[in-house]
UniProtKB/TrEMBL annotation:
Pfam families on file: DUF58
Ranges where the DUF58 domain occurs: 208-358
Keyword Transmembrane assigned: yes
Protein known as: DUF58 domain-containing protein
DNA damage keyword on record: no
Transmembrane segments: 18-37, 43-61
UniProt entry keywords in alphabetical sequence: Membrane, Transmembrane, Transmembrane helix
Length: 448
């Protein structure tokens, strides 16, 4: 009996309306000492309140499963994106209920006020949708969903604890990956800000002979086919295929800097995944190398359907390290792994010219054998400080230092170009678009 009572007691909560009623009862009893005409009114009021509470208890507990709830969480979440979570509700009570929902989301989101309130008519269903944006890869622990139900009397609430603990992995940004894949297949990458590159000349891979349309290069006119058919015909060429594209990701402490909740490493991982996807759609071969104080994961370039999943599984586990990058180890790994000339996209970060100068000899050695593209990041905070007007002496000092660091970033681009190394200086939020643009530009220029 006590166990049964404890079961219901732990899920029983008193509402504000009950406390207001009890407060009125106390007030009536106090006033009845001074106002004799109140008589037995306080006792009738208290009796009515107790009766209503018992009726409320009967209404809520007469059905074992009065409300059905199901939380739909994806099998995996996409890092840095808004992931949709759905809560499905169905009311089996013969009356309208008011429900409040507390969803026990993972502690990584640091949300303590996730409360949903709604009403649900009898025998009806309703869905509640909200979004979660994770900023770290790894496993996220979802707890139970707490459902608080009130009858039309609303003196008490009954709690339903729904669901069990569920661990959901957070992978690199695969939601944007799907969007880019669809855009690349349909040649609508410009919808993401990716430029359509003008082709310089044409590749040597012949595709077909087709009718001339306005805008075709007159140098591709096929005069023999034109003479045979009587209409102007041109040769059509396709991009060079099966080129090797390697993303090399620096995992050292330089990539730990945060921006809008994500580290630079996470931005690099998301961009690498999407670049690999676009390269595979363009029928090139995609590979991956990670490096810190020693060489990490290596995935040989391939274009099989399972290649992208293999890259994603490796990137899911990568974390920043606290030591500097061993460029000698990276050079040895590249020489041992890359058997033909490839596009090597190196995601790293330099905060000073001295940091670049330490790595420059190794970058020059890599660029002798491969087309090297060094991608590093603008410090957006310093850029904002350098653009704001100074209000005092301290502001002038801060502005000058910020401009100095911003100018050094531009000097790094020129220093790399002086040694024949391609570079891309970009803001973190524009990294993916700029990297894919650069890849398409290099293909259009037939440099890979």
């Amino acid at each position: 009996m006590m166990r049964l009572f404890g079961k219901y007691y732990t899920d029983l909560f008193l509402n504000k309306r009950l406390f207001i009623g009890l407060g009125l009862c106390v007030s009536l009893f106090v006033f009845s000492f001074f106002l004799s005409f109140l008589g037995d009114l306080p006792y009738f009021f208290l009796g009515a309140l107790v009766l209503l509470v018992f009726i409320d208890l009967f209404l809520l507990y007469r059905h074992e499963k009065g409300v059905f709830l199901r939380r739909d969480v994806p099998e995996r979440l996409s890092n840095g994106d808004d992931n949709e979570i759905k809560i499905y509700l169905e009311n089996f009570y013969p009356f309208e209920v008011k429900v409040g929902i507390i969803d026990e989301i993972p502690f990584q989101f640091q949300k303590r006020d996730l409360w949903f309130s709604t009403t649900l008519a009898s025998k009806t269903q309703k869905s509640i949708t909200y979004a979660l944006r994770p900023t770290k890869r790894g496993e996220y622990d979802f707890g139970q969903t707490r459902l608080y139900v009130q009858s039309p009397l609303r003196f008490i609430s009954r709690r339903f604890n729904v669901g069990v603990r569920k661990l959901v992995p957070v992978y690199p940004s695969f939601l944007k990956l799907r969007q880019y894949e669809l855009m690349a297949i349909s040649n609508r990458l410009t919808d993401f800000g990716i430029k359509k590159m003008r082709r310089i000349g044409h590749s040597m891979e012949f595709d077909q002979v087709k009718n001339y349309v306005a805008g075709d290069d007159y140098r591709t006119v096929n005069w023999k086919a034109t003479a045979r058919k009587g209409d102007l015909m041109v040769n059509s060429y396709t991009d060079e295929k099966a080129q090797h594209v390697y993303c090399v990701i620096d995992k050292s402490r330089a990539m730990k800097m945060p921006f809008e909740g994500l580290s630079l490493l996470d931005y690099a991982i998301n961009a690498s995944l999407i670049l690999s996807s676009v390269a595979l759609v363009k029928e090139d071969k995609a590979g991956l190398i990670t490096v810190a104080e020693k060489t990490g994961s290596i995935i040989q370039a391939d274009r099989r359907p399972a290649q992208l999943n293999k890259i994603m599984e490796v990137l899911y586990k990568e974390k920043t390290r606290y030591l500097e990058t061993d460029m000698e180890a990276l050079y040895i790994s590249i020489r041992a792994t890359l058997k033909q000339r490839s596009l090597v996209v190196f995601f790293t970060n330099f905060e000073s010219m001295s940091a670049l100068e330490r790595q420059l000899p190794h970058l020059k050695r890599i660029s002798k054998f491969h087309l090297l593209l060094v991608v590093f990041f603008e410090n957006t905070t310093l850029k904002t400080l350098s653009e704001e007007p100074a209000k005092d002496i301290e502001g002038i000092y801060i502005k000058t230092i910020a401009e100095k660091f911003a100018f050094e970033k531009k000097l790094m681009v020129k220093e790399l170009a002086k040694h024949g190394i391609l570079s891309l200086l970009t803001e973190p939020q524009n990294l993916t678009v700029n990297v894919v643009n650069q890849y398409l530009a290099l293909k259009a220029q037939q440099r890979i």
